[in-house]
Amino acid sequence: MIRYFLLATASFVATWQLAPLIVSAQPVPQTPAGTQILNRATGTYEDPNNPGNQINTTSNEVTVTVAEIAGITVTASGITDSNGGSVAVNDLLIYTYTVTNVGNAPTKFQIPNLATTTGPATVNGVLPADKNGNTPPNGTLQYSTDGGVTWTNIPPGGITTDAIPVNGTVQVRVPITVQTIALPGDVIAVRLGQTPGNAQNQPRIADGGDVYTVDNGNTSGPPTNGVREASATQQTAVGNTAATKALATILKTRTAYNAG
Fold first, then answer.
1. What is the mean pLDDT of residues 9-23?
2. Strand 108-111 to 62-65 pairing
3. Which of 20, 5, 32 has its CA nearest to residue 257?
4. If 209 and its partner were Cys, which of 114, 138, 156, 160 is the partner (CB 3.0–4.6 Å)?
5. What CATH fold (topology level) applies to the domain 72-237?
6. pTM of this prediction?
7. How far apart are CA 223 and CA 179, in angstroms?
8. Are 193 and 110 in contact (CB under 8 A)?
9. SS3 15
10. How confident is the model over 20-54, as pLDDT tens digits?
11. Pick from 213, 129, 109: which is nearest to 170 by CA?
């Protein structure tokens, strides 16, 4: 009888074993598309009829290439009343959203010049002139790729952005005008995108107003999970003070643990 002692190793497993154990609220980053993972197994065996004579063997090297995965989220990023104070009839409210690339490769986004409203308000009003000095037509949305420093008008048919890096963002702002029929306490909700229940990173079902991924073509073939879409809704009430929402990030790290 021959006894076998087999040890299989892979570069990504070895790296994990050597890393310290850290528990964090941060998501684990995805492996970039196109990354090659090399896997080779080694084994040592001994013939009991010839003790002490170890024989080593090595398998063929197997290379796995990480496929491209598309990913998108849309989140609410605050509401601003253009004249300050509380929300009132005829006020111009600016609803801002953040679109994030949560895939593992750069991707483009398709952003519509369209949002939907619920309550006594419409997509109406004129936002400030864009970075090119162009005053947008009434009811036109704008987008920003530099964190809201500058804005660009979205044309009637929507816009396909340039490639957005992994974890990169695009901001979108929507002009909303409060109608004269509005009463104190009436809720004004605005939705960007068209997914059921504002679900994130869903397979796209094509309809008007979608916010979705567009393949950047930087890897061979399209993303394995296809085109993805997402949406988000945020709201305020007439009589409330609309203010930009600041989002805090809480990070947790476990440095020591005793099970007791």
1. 37
2. unpaired
3. 20
4. 114
5. Immunoglobulin-like (2.60.40)
6. 0.77
7. 43
8. no
9. helix
10. 333 334 456 678 766 768 777 787 877 777 777 78
11. 109
Structure tokens at 32: 């970039």
What are 91's two structure tokens?
A: 């006020």
Q: Percentage of the chain surpassing pLDDT 70?
A: 80
Per residue in 139-157, pLDDT (tens digit) is 999 999 999 999 999 999 9
Long-range contacts for 90-93 (Cβ within 8 Å, ≥24 apart)? 90/177, 90/178, 90/180, 91/177, 91/178, 92/125, 92/126, 92/175, 92/176, 92/177, 93/121, 93/175, 93/176, 93/177, 93/178, 93/188, 93/236, 93/242
Burial of 50 (0-12, 13-18, 19+ CB in 10 A): exposed
Question: Alpha carbon of 35 to those of 12, 64, 105, 226, 233: distances in Å?
Answer: 11, 8, 11, 19, 36
Write down the H helix ranges in the chain: 11-18
